[in-house]
Amino acid sequence: MSVAPSPTRVVPRRSGLGFTVSVSVAMLLGALAMGFVLLASDAPGAIVVGAVLAALPVGPVLGCFLWLDRYEPEPRTLLLLGLGWGAFVATSSALVLQLVGEFAFRAPQSFSGAVVAPVTEEAAKGLFILLLLFFRRNELDGVLDGIVYAGMVGVGFAFVENILYLSSAYVGEQGQLGGIGSAVGLFVVRGIFSPFAHPLFTTFTGIGVGLAVVSRRPAVRVLAPIGGYLLAVAAHATWNASAFMGGGRGFVLTYLFVMVPAFALLAGFAIWARRREARMLTDSLADCARRGFLDPAEVPWLVRLPARRAARRYARQAGGPDALGVMREYQQTAVELGFLHSRYLRGTAPRDATARGQAYVDQLIRLRPHLVWPRATGPSGAVGPAAGGLA
Fold first, then answer.
1. In this record, what's one Pfam family (predicted)?
2. Chain-centre distance of CA 298, in angstroms?
C-alpha cells in the first residue's frame, strides 16, 4: 500500500502568508521602480547586454549557497523571496537612499561610494534577514541558515546592480568609449573576479542574525545582528574605497590582501558550520531515537547525504514515485524534528516547540508503515514514539 505525500511542513506558520504577501508587494513596487530606471536610460540594447552578462555568474554563486543548504533545505519560496528582495527591494530602496544622501551631504562621488552606499545597501539587504528573524523565526535554526539567506539576497542585489553598471559601461559614460569591449572588461572585474562581493558583505549580517537565534543571552540576541551589520558595512566600505585609493593599484592590493583572504575565511567558516550542523543533527536524532521517536537504525539514512540519496533511489526503484515521495517527506520531517530537538537540548527552543515536535512525531508515525528501506542495511523495524512530547 502506498500513500500520496503530503506537505512536509506539518505545522502551520503564523504570519507566513502575511509575510509572503507583504514581501511580494514590496518586490513588485521595487521591480516597477527599477524597471523605470532601466527604461529611462533609453538604451534597450545596452540593457540586454548588461542583463546577459550579469546573469552569467548567478548560477555558480547560487549553487554554492544551495550546496551549503543541503542538510535542512530552506523553503524554496523563502529563498526566492530573498533573491527577489535583493534584486528589487534592496536595489531600489538603496538607490533612493543614496540619492537622498548625496543631496543632503552634497558630497563627492568618493564619499558616496565609500560611506553612503555601504551603509544604505547593507541596511536594505539586511532588512530581509531581520524580517525573517521577527516574522519567520522558526525557519532560522542557526548561523548556516543566516548565511544562506544572506547569500540569496546578495546574489539578487548583485545581479540587478551589475545590469546597471554593465549597461552603463556599454553606453559609455564619463569619457569612456563604451561598446561591448567596455562592458566585457567591467564584467571581468565584477562577474569573474568578484562575483561573491555582495553576498560576502551581507553574510556578516546573516551570521549575526544566526548567532542571535542560537544564543540564550539577551545581549547577544541584540548585539550580534548589529555587529554583523557593522562588519558588513565595514567590508563593503573597504571594497568601495579601494577604487578611489591609488588608482588601480589600491583596488588590486585590496582585492589580493583583503577580499581574497576574507572570502577564504568565510568560505572555510561556512564549510565548518555545515559539518558542525551534520554532527549536531546526528546527535539530536540519536537522542530522539533514545526517546523512542524513531528507530536508531534510521539515523544514518536521515543524516548522511549519500545515504539519503541511496534511500530515495531504492524507494523509487522498489515502490515508484509514491514511495519516493514518502521517503523524501519522512527524511525531511525527521530532519525538521532533529533541528527543533537540538534547539530544545540547547535551551533555545521556540515557544511552540512542544506542539511542533509532537506534530513532527505524528507525521513520522503516519509515514513509517509506508516506507521502503534498502533491505540489506536498512532499519530492522519501526519503533513507535514514546508517550508524551519532546521534553
1. PrsW-protease
2. 28
